[in-house]
Amino acid sequence: MSRVGPALVLAAVLGWLPARLPAASLLVCYNFGCRNEAAVNLDDTALADMERVLAYALDADDERVALSGVLARLYRWAGRFTPIASDLGGNDRDTDLDGRMDCIDHSTTTTRMLALLAADGVLRFHEPGEPAWRRRWLLFEHRTAVIRARDGGDYAVDTWFRDHGEPAVIMPLSKWMSGGGDE
Question: Running DSSP on this structure, what letter comes out for residue 80?
Answer without folding.
Answer: T
